[in-house]
Amino acid sequence: MDLLLIQPILLAALKTGTPLLIIALGELICEKTGVLNLGQEGMMLMGAMAGFAGAFYTGNLYVGIALAIGAGMAMALLFSLLTLTLNTNQVATGLALTIFGTGLSAFLGSSLVGSTLDGFQPIAIPLLSQLPFLGPLLFNQDILVYTSFALVGTAWFVMHKTRIGLTIRAVGENPHSANALGIKVRHVRYAAALFGGAMAGLAGAYLSLAYTPMWMENMTAGRGWIALALVVFASWRIGYLALGAYLFGFASILHLVMQGFGFSISPNLLAMTPYVATIAVMVIISSNALKQKLATPMSLGKPFDPKLN
Hints:
By secondary structure, the chain is an all-alpha fold. It has a single domain, classed as ABC transporter involved in vitamin B12 uptake, BtuC, CATH 1.10.3470. It contains 14 helices and two strands; from the N terminus they run H-H-H-H-E-H-E-H-H-H-H-H-H-H-H-H. It has a two-stranded antiparallel sheet with strand order 1-2. The chain is globular. It is found in: Cell inner membrane. Pfam families: BPD_transp_2. GO terms for molecular function: transmembrane transporter activity. This is ABC transporter permease.
């Protein structure tokens, strides 16, 4: 396989992995504070619908981005009010949020189904885009792909080199001890949940404004669920998360690659590849219970009540 063939495959994997990277990054930060939000699929769909509707009716893609982020944050705020203020079960509430977001996005976007627009176009970075092999791959992308690169670097720096990251980890590991030190645990968790919602909305906007600039019901195709598995696969580490996102992106296009090489396998069977990969990864990870327990934030999914401190 020569470089001329490898490059477009890697390019497709990068584009396919970008929405997974963005939404999984938001969920990782959220889970680092102990909040488990299973509503990623619903938030992502709302972001995709709001982003497309905003861009379609205003003719401005950046208005669409803003509305997508706002829609994701609104859904995350609803989740936070229920789980962090009213102390409802996080798993049940997250699942309900996905169902709610799926139905609401289909209802609000019903008049736009099948509509298209001119989405974000690649922006070539002078000189760097001319580099052999890596130039077209990394430096001739649309603005949202570049944004995903910046988000990963910024998130890593904040989590590992700043007081904010230390606070986030402290809240996720032992919220009662953090509260005793004067950290406003619920405020931190609210902020992390809203950040997760913003990332879910942005990931949805990438799908409807860049990857396939159109709106159709359930266009996320389970990416929110894959992102949840991706966070576990990465053991809550940002570097592994980026690698895993692109690996899952490659798994998503593997059926196209195999068809291009002439494999006589049913397209429907090959299209199952990313979901089979998700199940396989979860099985492998679950086989090492001790390692998984050590990597998981200690308070993940557990409600916090300062009165019980």
